[in-house]
Batch of 2 targets.
Target 1
Amino acid sequence: MSRFWSPIVSTLKPYVPGEQPKIANLVKLNTNESPYGPSPKALAAIAEAAGDALRLYPDPTSMALREAIAARHGLSAGEVFVGNGSDEVLAHAFMGLLKHEKPLLYPDISYSFYPVYCGLYGIEAVEIPLDDAFRIRVADYDRPSGAVILPNPNAPTGIALPLAEIEALLAQDRERLVVVDEAYVDFGAESAVSLVPAHDNLLVVQTFSKSRGLAGLRVGFAIGQRPLIEGLERVKDSFNSYPLDRLAIAGATAAYRDEAWFDDKRRTIMASRERVAEGLAALGFEVLPSSANFVFARHGQRAGADLAAALRARGVLVRHFAKPRIGDFLRISIGTDAECDRLLAELSAILEG
Ligand code: PMP
């Protein structure tokens, strides 16, 4: 605390990022990164961009990347916004689009950055509990509100909402903006991007951090109709007009174009997820049905905190969640096959011991 802090900084409760360990050789299944890394074509593009041109500012509009993303969806670059990780894209959406006189709605439990942005921008929020099966119940959002944000699949549960449910949410109030945070959509959920042309109250946010193995490059994007994108650009240009550097624009553009690499890796991760879910169930865990690159699971007998600590002592890092409304869960990212085997073997040893 300093007497120079503004009142808003004094009351902020900042997000606590998952551990990025300094110790080597840990099996890192705690922050939902890809175990496979980026497309070799992305690495080649980054290497090529890492030259004398770095003395020049990047393209402030990141046009090459926006065009690559738009082309995939039959949209124009004006319907795509890019930022420094989807966290930054979301931050701009909270500041520029989600602050209203009426409250913002989001599920409890969901991405824990949402309340942080609400604190930062003074946004009133109402948290809507999940149902007894940890699902988002769209009918609960049919109430006076300024906007809605929800992850699909939800995080950290991993449970996806079908597209028809997103459409129902959009139809509840055409004057209310719905932001769908699709950080994990490529692992088996249906994307709402196809709904954008017919819905001016929809913004879809995605990231390069998970299915494209580029968490370290910090690139995310939003897709929506032009007026929404222009709103985000107004915020961006009042904050940092060069959010993506030259390496990020080059690497992300090449990664987005390499559909084969992306498809192969996301399918591999989905297959490993099913194997992990079965293995965990055999060890006495209840595993929620996941459409993400992680599973959310709780053990009938053993406390999540103890299991997470015992795994860490054996070199495996997972994330522990405990909240009154949801109980005591582990969120386990899907690693390589060898990492998944190691996780199951260590858990089995812990539970036997
Ligand atoms: N949304 C959700 C639901 C997430 O879990 C994450 C990752 N922590 C993000 C957005 C942000 O990801 P990034 O900033 O790496 O794009």
Target 2
Amino acid sequence: ARRRLIVVGGVAAGMSAASRARRMDPSLEILVFERTGFVSYGSCGLPYYLAGLVGRSEDLVVYSPAFFKERRDIDVFVGHEVTALDPSSRRVQVRGLADGEVREVAYDVLVLATGASAVRPPVPGVGRPGVFVLRTLEDGIAMRRHVDVLTGPDRTDGGRPRAVLVGAGPIGLEVAEALTARGLSVSLVEMAGQVLPGYHPDLAAHVEAELRRHGVDVHVNEALAAVEGAGDGGAATAVRTASGRTLPADLVLLATGIRPNVELARQAGLRLGSTGAVAVDHRLLTSDPHIYAAGDGVETWHRVLRRPAWIPLGTTSNKMGRIAGENAAGGDATFRGVVGTAALRIFDVEVGRTGLTEAEAAAEGWEPVTAYVRHGSRAHYYPGPGPVHLWLVGDRRSGRLLGAQAVGPAGAVAKRVDVLAVAVTAGMDVDEVAELDLSYAPPLAPVWDPILMAARAWG
Ligand code: FAD
């Protein structure tokens, strides 16, 4: 019989694993079980689908189940949930969600790619119609349908439809932009004292100003208390905050965070890490010799901290999936890990980070010193947008670059953050960064790039 690989979960990590395993071993039998109706799509594109920039939900899908069957000999079962995992007999229990039928399927090797789920804060009313989370393609389709109705010709009341977004992390902000573009009046409610919690407060202030400039009503230091509506199960009509503020709402998004889907791993007795996500070694093997794991449900290696961390991102999930798939098919690849790089764009402002923040570095026993510069993103005489603000964190004792954050005009930030991500990865000292041979031409950069200026200003 053919050796059989079962993959649980079919988005970024799962389909990367299945495809890589197929490339490694043409004889392997590969089964993917996915409980939602879709596989192989870019969830990172969901805000742009809501905005209407991406026309149809199908446009977010990379390959269909039929493609996987015909071109890659991978059997994809959508609408199938794995409800139990027994490592001792190497079997899973699978339930078809359409017919409720349960069957047992044996495997030789398994990849857990169950990802993460959106958390709904435990307050009254979060189950009302008109309240959404944005995680899966199905979430996106449901939310876009609601936005289409709110903005469509059949609207009953004449006013501008109102959205309240709870949580001002990357997803809340990207959706704020999307719904503003759709003509909704948007309020953001954030429990922390700033938007983008975790970023430098001065950086967050630039982002908040940009949101306000585009008409977004921003409320920080406000926790969600309840979603109100008519009667017990009536549609959402308002959001109430802990301070007693009431914000009228035709649509509510809960973007208050995610948690790793570890139920199967826990039930199977696999080791979880201190972060709560599934623990793996450098080959992405779990504590069971026949089970690999990858993606948002799994810890990743942090190259600066030199220990596992949970940093759920699409870029990492795809890479981890590829490694897990390769090893599940008999390969011997290692995942080198991450340095905590991320970027986003909100309206005309771009934000990014890499490595450690000053607070993270201090918590690890480094002696962090931060240099801040505000410097043009192009030659000073060249027409165009404003400056880049860059915070560079280095260790006073060793001189080593530990991390950076930046905010500035769209197109000018991710480039700088990526250069610094390479420098952090290479373990460079700030002194060396100050002498990097970076590109210069008036429309693209100033002769002294903000990176060089910040490194010079450090120490
Ligand atoms: P998931 O996408 O969570 O997929 C796991 C799948 O497993 C799910 O479909 C789930 O239904 C299924 N599953 C779980 N349990 C079972 C079971 N028992 N049986 C069967 N199926 C099961 N990342 C970036 O790097 N950059 C970005 O700009 C970015 N933007 C984002 C914007 C949005 C709106 C969202 C939601 C995410 C964004 N991300 C971004 C994060 C990125 O989308 C995720 O990191 C990525 O989707 C994780 O992939 P995954 O395969 O590990 O997990």
